[in-house]
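Quick start: read one record
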Amino acid sequence: MTIGTQVKSCYASIKSIEGTLESLYETTRNPSLQTAIEEANKLIAQVKNDMHHQVIELMKKEPQFKP
């Protein structure tokens, strides 16, 4: 597995985690859990943004990853 494939896979996993946390947030009534999810989502958003930039860079450098 190439680095590009691993980065794209990691990015997809992060997006999945983000969706799962959002779903959990909407279904829970526990305020402390909601607060924890909000904090986790902030961190995940930062990581997702960084990973997105990496995917873009890889697409520029590795032609096999171009859509």
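The mean pLDDT is 89.
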